[in-house]
Amino acid sequence: MKSTLKLSLIAGLLAVAGIAYAGQRGGQWHEQCDPMMGPGSSMQGHGMRQDRMGKMDPARMQARMEQRDAMLKAQLKLTAAQEGAWKTFTEARKPAAMQTMPQRPDPIEMAKLTTPERLDKMKALRTERMTAMNAAMEKHEAATKTFYAALTLEQQKVFDVAAGPGQRGGKGGRMAPPPAPAAKL
């Protein structure tokens, strides 16, 4: 047999075996391939980095937030007069709003609904979740602006660097480019 014909037969055999294997798995390929869709993944902020991060339990998240707050407070060198604004700022950032958000619907109850009913239920839950998230974000924004106004110009510069792009408080996290160097006059 010619080598080209052998290679074609082997490739065809492997393709058929792959399709047969996928068929035995019930077509649930996404549970193996996509960590966001696999069993037990609730897509609650873990995303595709779940393998490295592990599950972030609320106590661990709270400890990390308190550690970052302590570092920021030390960098800002707050006065006694600014303590009230600091307390309001840190209280507004606590994840209490996340605890009041609607949980994922019960799959057994959802299975009893028709497709249009399921879509309506998911839309209502999504609207409720977005309303809660927006309220929490608005509270955080107001507290941040109030706290920022209580800072001196020097403290505002420190805060801008700590909460700017590429930092924990800004968009992008570690993937964002570092801030541009200050312009020399």
TrEMBL record:
Q: Which residues form a coiled coil?
A: none
Which of UniProt's keywords are assigned here? Signal
Q: Which residues form the signal peptide?
A: 1-22
* Compositional bias per record (Pro residues), positions renumbered to this chain: 176-185
Source domain of life is Bacteria
Tell me a GO cellular component: periplasmic space
> In the UniProt record, does the keyword Lipid metabolism occur?
no
Location of the region described as Disordered in the Swiss-Prot/TrEMBL record: 163-185
Tagged with keyword Acyltransferase:
no
Protein name, per record: LTXXQ motif family protein
